[in-house]
Design brief:
The protein is built from 8 helices and 6 strands, in the order H-H-E-H-E-H-E-H-H-H-E-E-E-H. It is of the alpha/beta class. It has a 6-stranded mixed β-sheet with strand order 3-2-1-4-6-5, sandwiched between helices.
C-alpha cells in the first residue's frame, strides 16, 4: 500500500486513510508547519477527524495559541491531552526539572505515555514528519506499522520538502507559529528548543548540546528510562 501511495498527493493519502479507518483514524499535532498544512487538508476532507496535541505543560505560548486559530479558521477543536502530573507536581516528585536531569525520561512521561493512552481504541494515526528532516526520518514510509503504539502510521507529507510545505502555507494563508519568523526552525517544548543560525540543521535547535535528536514518537526503539536522581 505504501508503494502505491508513494506518488499520491497528501490529500489522496488522507482520503484513503479516512475511508479505510473511519473514526478509528486520528492525528497528533504539535502545530508545526507540516501539521498546520495537514489540518488545513483535513478541514476540507474530514473536519470531524479526532485531532489531539500532547500538552506537556512546557509548550510555548505561541504554540498553544494556534489551537484557537485552528478552531476559528477550520472548525477543528484540537484536544489538549495532558500527562498524569502537572509540571509543578512532576518537578516536585522528581526534585527538579527532569528535562535537565533526564530529557529522555521527561519525553517518555509527558509525551509517549500520553500518546499510548490516546492510541487505545484507534487503528491508525497521522504524523506530519518529512523524510528530509533528519536521518532518523529518511526512511519513513507513507504507510507503515508503528510497533511502538501498535497503530498504522500514515505520513502524508513524508516525501514533501520544506519548500513545498511553506509554499502551501503562503499560497493558502495557513496560520503558523510566529516563532518560525524568529529563526525557530523546529519547535518543541520551550526548555529544550532554541533558535538556529543560518546553515544549521533544521532540528539543531532541539535538545541542543546533547546527543538527543528525537522525543521518541517517531523512532522504533523505546527511549531509555534511566533512573532519575531524586536529589537533583
Amino acid at each position: 500500500m505504501s508503494d502505491r501511495l508513494e506518488t499520491a498527493k497528501p490529500e489522496e493519502i488522507l482520503t484513503w486513510a479516512i475511508e479505510r479507518f473511519g473514526d478509528k483514524f486520528t492525528m497528533a499535532t504539535a502545530f508545526g508547519p507540516e501539521g498546520m498544512v495537514i489540518l488545513e487538508m483535513l478541514s476540507r476532507i474530514s473536519p470531524s477527524t479526532y485531532v489531539f496535541n500532547l500538552d506537556t505543560g512546557y509548550q510555548f505560548r505561541e504554540t498553544l495559541e494556534l489551537r484557537d486559530k485552528v478552531l476559528e479558521r477550520y472548525g477543528i477543536a484540537v484536544d489538549l491531552l495532558k500527562p498524569e502530573h502537572s509540571v509543578e507536581e512532576y518537578e516536585r516528585i522528581h526534585g527538579g526539572p527532569v528535562y535537565k536531569s533526564n530529557p529522555n525520561q521527561c519525553c517518555f512521561d509527558r509525551k509517549l505515555k500520553v500518546l499510548s493512552n490516546a492510541a487505545l481504541g484507534r487503528h491508525a494515526w497521522a504524523s506530519a514528519i518529512r523524510r528530509d528532516q533528519s536521518p532518523d526520518r529518511a526512511r519513513a514510509p507513507i504507510v507503515g506499522w508503528d510497533r511502538k503504539f501498535h497503530l498504522v502510521k500514515i505520513s502524508p507529507l513524508a516525501n514533501w520538502t520544506k519548500k513545498l510545505v511553506w509554499n502551501r502555507i503562503i499560497d493558502r494563508g495557513i496560520p503558523y507559529n510566529p516563532l518560525h519568523d524568529q529563526d525557530y526552525k523546529s519547535i518543541g517544548c520551550w526548555p529544550c528548543t532554541r533558535a538556529t543560525a543560518d546553515g544549521e540543521d533544521e532540528r539543531a535547535g532541539r535538545w541542543s548540546g546533547t546527543e538527543k535528536k528525537e522525543c521518541g514518537l517517531h523512532t522504533d526503539e523505546e527511549p531509555p528510562q534511566a533512573p532519575i536522581n531524586p536529589n537533583l
